[in-house]
Amino acid sequence: MKAVLQLVKEASVTVDNQVVGKIERGFLILLGVSAEDTETDCRYLVDKISNLRVFPDEFGKMNLSIQDVAGQALVVSQFTLYADCRKGRRPNFTAAAPPDKAQELYEKFVALLGEVVPVETGIFQASMEVSLINDGPVTILLESPGKEG
Fold it and tell me: I need a surface site. Which of 19, 41, 123, 138 has the fewest CB within 10 A?
């Protein structure tokens, strides 16, 4: 499982000209699920994300977690994080989970993270427009252990 975290001042997701998810300060999380992933991967990333100290403290040092700053999360499914571009000119997505498994683990991730911080989402498999104001900018790639791809 892969997650791209962007520390944001605000972020939103629009589908068919309707805002379906919107947050203030927190993380925009682009989440990719691989064919190998399990609930254990969800739990690992939720724990890592909810405790990662990347928000600035009163001295401007990255020292606070999303929980410490009462932040929010906007989670967007992103199977393209598993693009393999090593051969040819067209990405191969065979490492990505099939849609039914990806949706199940995406929803599990959202539910688990929602137990820790307020969570908004996009719409799984929809064509989405994502807007954000990246703060810092701070962008971090996380991956569950033991995975390659």
Answer: 19
